[in-house]
Design goal:
With 385 residues, this protein is an alpha+beta fold. It has 2 domains: 254 residues, Zn peptidases (Aminopeptidase); 118 residues, Alpha-Beta Plaits (2-Layer Sandwich), CATH 3.30.70.360. Helix content is 31%, strand content 29%. The chain has 10 helices and 22 strands. The strands form 5 sheets. Strands 1, 2, 3, 6, 7, 8, 18, 19 and 20 form a 9-stranded mixed beta sheet that branches. A hairpin with a 2-residue loop joins strand 11 and strand 12. The radius of gyration is 24 Å and the shape is elongated. Bound molecules: zinc ion. Zinc ion binds next to helix 4.
Length: 385
């Protein structure tokens, strides 16, 4: 059986991680991937997502025309952006392990996914392997709110199901992920001299403290979590603070539970604020809360008997690999694609310790992942619409 070109895949990962691509600055990576795919004779376009989010490129969309006309189209995606610090990556190669010099992330999240897709497309072409139409999408701004996926031009896609390659362990296929709410609260108290007339003030910090101590946080139940991640406020010890900003999140695999948890946190803040009133010069002032709550992404739940899960399982079996479906606590582009009408699961690529300067990757894992993807493309060619 034809296999992927391991050395070429490894080298392509090394090439990609050395091209800087913080979110909104993916232009150089996008240009590289585009040129390499066009060299294969693939039609590539860049959508308008970059303008929509203030970045230097949009999503790269490659439409590979199938050689098997009756086979259904399949979708593959990975994101081009990396978290910080991701500039000037100097990969350190230690046998099969690729890591960094400890000053940056590696960016295997998600350049390993990008490299796997490109290598599979090269292998298909080079070996004339029969395949269906393929929509290969390289997104921007995944790390800053899944923005590329949210702005992806869906009209250009022919596929209804497929894979995102954007998680760590190759043995797992993430099919379930939570919904998440992002919350920003500003608590307004009343400023006063802390030594002369504290009774004329309302401490926004005290209001925040009361509210937070009334909140259920951390792990709420097996599928629900909540966290206050940022507390900012106050100016000096001798001023009763008039403003505190809280940034918080809640996640759940059950959207009703998520609604309830977010409402619980909101209510704790408004209740605490309502308890703090002062009258100064005959004017009554009550603490108040301004809020900005957004559903950052929606949960996904891809069934075990869906076409994509069945393809992954069959491919793994054919290759003597073990893959199991799993729920994750995180969100990724797949959440957005599922919400937007595709059926997409998230397969691991071998990236490890992501979002840290200790990030590393074992190329053997990346090869395994690429082999599964290639086998999926092969199997998909045997399906009929
Ligand atoms: Zn990622």
């Amino acid at each position: 059986m034809t296999q992927i070109n391991r050395e070429r895949l490894r080298q392509y990962l090394l090439d990609l991680v050395q091209i800087d691509s913080h979110s909104r600055e993916e232009g150089l990576v996008a240009a590289r991937i585009r040129a390499d795919l066009e060299a294969l004779g693939i039609e590539v376009s860049v959508d308008g997502a970059g303008e929509a989010v203030g970045g230097d490129t949009g999503n790269v969309i490659a439409r590979i025309n199938g050689t098997v006309p009756d086979a259904p189209a399949i979708f593959l995606a990975a994101h081009m952006d990396t978290v910080v610090p991701g500039k000037g990556v100097k990969p350190v190669i230690d046998g099969d392990i690729i890591r960094t010099d400890g000053t940056t992330v590696l960016g295997g999240d998600d350049k390993s996914g990008c490299a796997i897709i490109v290598e599979c497309l090269r292998t298909l072409k080079e070996n004339s392997i029969p395949h269906s139409n393929i929509d290969a999408v390289f997104t921007i701004c995944e790390e800053v709110g899944l923005l590329g996926a949210k702005h992806l031009d869906m009209a250009s896609l022919r596929s209804k199901y497929g894979l995102v390659l954007d998680s760590d362990d190759v043995g797992y296929l993430f099919t379930r992920a939570p919904s998440a709410d992002h919350m920003e609260y500003t608590i307004y108290g009343l400023e006063a001299h802390a030594g002369v007339c504290p009774e004329n003030g309302i401490s926004a910090i005290q209001v925040a403290a009361e509210a937070i101590s009334a909140m259920k946080l951390g792990r709420i139940d097996f599928e629900t979590t909540a966290n206050i991640g940022v507390v900012q406020g106050g100016a000096a010890t001798n001023i009763v603070p008039n403003q505190v900003v809280l940034k918080a999140e809640a996640r759940s695999h059950d959207s009703a539970k998520l609604d309830a948890q977010t409402e619980h946190m909101r209510k704790a803040l408004h209740d605490a604020a309502a308890r703090h009133t002062v009258v100064v010069d005959g004017v009554s002032v009550t603490a108040r809360v301004e809020e900005n709550i957004t559903r950052e992404y929606h949960s996904m739940n891809v069934a075990d008997d869906s076409t994509i899960v069945q393809l992954v399982m069959q491919a793994a079996t054919n290759l003597n690999q073990q893959v199991q479906t799993l729920a994750t606590g995180g969100g990724c582009d797949a959440n957005v694609f599922n919400r937007r009408g595709l059926e997409v699961a998230n397969l691991g690529t071998g990236m490890q310790a992501i979002h840290t300067v200790k990030e590393w990757l074992d190329v053997k894992d990346m090869y395994r992942s690429a082999e599964v993807v290639l086998e999926i493309l092969r199997l998909n060619a045997n399906l009929t619409r």
